[in-house]
Fold:
Amino acid sequence: MLNPDAKLNHDIFSKHVEEAPTRDGYGHGLLEAGKEKNVVVLSADLEESTRCHWFAKVYPERFFECGVAEQGMTTIAAGLAVAGKIPFISSYANFCPGRTWEQVRTTICYNNANVKIAGNHAGISVGPDGATHQATEDIAIMRSLPNMKVVVPCDSIEAQKATMAVSQIYGPMYLRLQREKTPVMTTKETPFVFGKAYPLWVSKGKEIDVLIIGAGPLLHNALLAAKELEKERIRSVVLNSHTIKPLDEKEILNWAKKAGAVVTVEEHNIIGGLGGAVAELLTGKLPLPLERVGIRDVYGESGKPEELIRKYHLDVKDVVVAVKKVIKRK
Amino acid sequence: MYLSHHRIKDLYEVANRLREDVIEMLVEAGSGHSAGPLGMADIFAAMYFYVLNHKPKNPNWPLRDRLILSNGHICPIQYAALARSGYFPLKELSTLRKINSRLQGHPHRGSLPGVETTSGPLGSGLAQAIGMALAAKLNNERHRIYCMMSDGEHDEGNTWEAVMFAGKNKLNNLTAVMDRNNIQIDGFTENVMPLEPLRDKYEAFGWEVIDVDGHNIEEFISAIWEAKAIYEKPTMIIAHTIPGKGVDFMERKYEWHGIPPNKEQAREALSQLRKLGGKIKSEHE
Structure:
């Protein structure tokens, strides 16, 4: 059943569940974060599609358009941060932090500059634009940088809370956002604490058979899978691990110990993302069977989001298959 | 501000002393860059001992002028200037590039007092300086931002992205200084990747451009004053310099871009510097 403490959306399993993109949550979050006068926002010619145009309208004097120049935007933000500002930089994840990885490494992370990077249009579900615009390695390249922290919100409401949260914690942050409308799973009342994973779903009874860990909108598929698995008497916990770095090791290990098997679910390469992070954790502290649902080290292609989710094995049935497979390996 | 002949002579002496420090640091380190630091000694002497409004004993003084070194590989000259102006003990200069040292091979913020930001990978310093200039404008702060750059790093796209942004935003509190020494690792700049006409390029992006003799301290300082008087644009001072200046066998040779002198070469270099190019016969200490 849904975790009552998470105070989730009642319509979460309805066909008519409200949908909104996580980037919208970022845009609303910026408005809220902007009440602090040191917050500034920079765009690389993607003001509207990264949703920072709302901030630009309310705080024009603190909004800077850099042109199609992600490296410039990144390094200018580093200078602003060194001078005490709290810059948010917005582009598509493939361009920033994709193209700008070295600038992020040297001038933001090594420099420990208080810059917040919002990587929009992440994942394969960007759809028709094709693989050039589908960032599926961004978590990996950000996670490997010392000082950097990584947050992947699961819906627009969580994205808004995450935007506010990262603005208030010092240091380099990567916020991963998506373009498409996705189910709003959480509510304003759902507790969000940076670095703290929490269960969305806990099967009834004392025993559980599998721990499903997810991050981002694909958690909805994990929940649908948990619901289906319950019909087959497979008991699961679905954990929302929105903060991928630092990973909430304690919460994950607690549940993993009870379950004895783990599945990760993410719209990212199975190498280096959430699946990679969990594999590193389990290998070091609690070796258990692990299956990773994610993009299997290939590039995407053009198509409708739902078609891509199916073709690249990120669907509900893929989670179900992974769960059955991992349980057999126990 | 009145600049007496006496004061100018002092600055040249400081510059020569900084050159000696650079040679001593590099030979001790066993790696590093020779030509750039020697070529920029006069300008660094002028910056740290005349131009900058700063308090070496209070390196985080909020009202200080900021000096950002974009071409971080010439940091030995900055480290020497920081130490000689009192940011940290002189004896620490000999730890350059060694384990547990505050003097990293390229500048790192937080490692050493007086280093404003992390730099070295070329093309990212100007943009950082621009970020600081923009922040100062937002805060109505009066300090100035100086960015020391190389000519070679104008091959980098990141540099030109920053140039456009500074022009667009009319950052008149920003003065960049280009070490126009015509060399980079692989050879002469105009052979590796032609950069000229640099003045026209900067002017086209909305900058004021002043060309100076980078070894004429008086001319350089007057360009700095001119830049302060320009109220609607950022300024680029193109400082024409001789790489390796002061050591005859290093001058104008791109081969000296990225290597240190060996012990014998260092002895010869120091002897030349101490004789001030033959002007004096007896070496000082």
About this structure: Strands of chain B lie at 66-69, 145-150, 174-180, 183-184, 187-188, 208-213, 235-240.
